[in-house]
Design a protein that fits this description.
- The protein is mostly helical.
- It has one domain.
- 68% of the residues lie in helices and 0% in strands.
- It is built from seven helices and no strands.
- Helix 1 packs antiparallel against helix 5 and helix 4 packs antiparallel against helix 7.
Length: 158
């Protein structure tokens, strides 16, 4: 059944979209490993940069120059992915999204009482901790971008 999901996702790719191929593989890997995460067999580590962001998302210690601010922002980009772009009207890959939803549905039916299992195994609290760290990373990146803009750093734009 999972082979069908991956085949559908592969068919959703077009030669003009090479970047989406890696995205599809990553999503597929995420879907396939979800049951192991649900029962606590596989752990998702919180990247150190996000842990630091949680400690002090609005601190400027060690960020005196525009180059340091840019480096800190780039480091967050490497973990969080590209920042929000105004006017980004990228067309959504509907077939890929349907394949992803189908794959998640199949995986979610593998474990009966999945929500309860996730709480008992610690997977749900771990996911909440990761989500909080990601939120702190987004806040930190926004703060750094605002700081760069206020300091009129080269390349900063609103």
């Amino acid at each position: 059944m999972m082979i069908l999901v991956f085949a559908m996702a592969a068919l959703a790719q077009t030669p003009e979209q090479p970047a989406r191929k890696d995205e599809t593989v990553d999503r597929g890997r995420e879907i396939v490993t979800q049951p192991a995460k649900d029962i606590g067999a596989a752990k998702t580590a919180i990247p150190a940069i996000l842990e630091r962001a949680q400690e002090n998302p609005y601190g400027l210690a060690g960020l005196k120059s525009c180059a340091q601010i840019k480096a800190a922002t780039t480091e967050l980009d490497s973990v969080l992915g590209p920042d929000f772009a105004v006017g980004n009207n990228k067309k959504e890959n509907r077939a890929g999204r349907l394949a992803e939803a189908g794959g998640k549905t199949i995986v979610n039916t593998i474990i009966p009482f999945r929500g309860l299992v996730r709480e008992i195994s610690g997977a749900a609290p771990a996911e909440r901790r990761l989500a909080a760290a990601i939120d702190a990373g987004f806040a930190r990146r926004g703060f750094l971008r605002g700081t760069a803009l206020a300091r009129r750093c080269p390349g900063s734009k609103n």
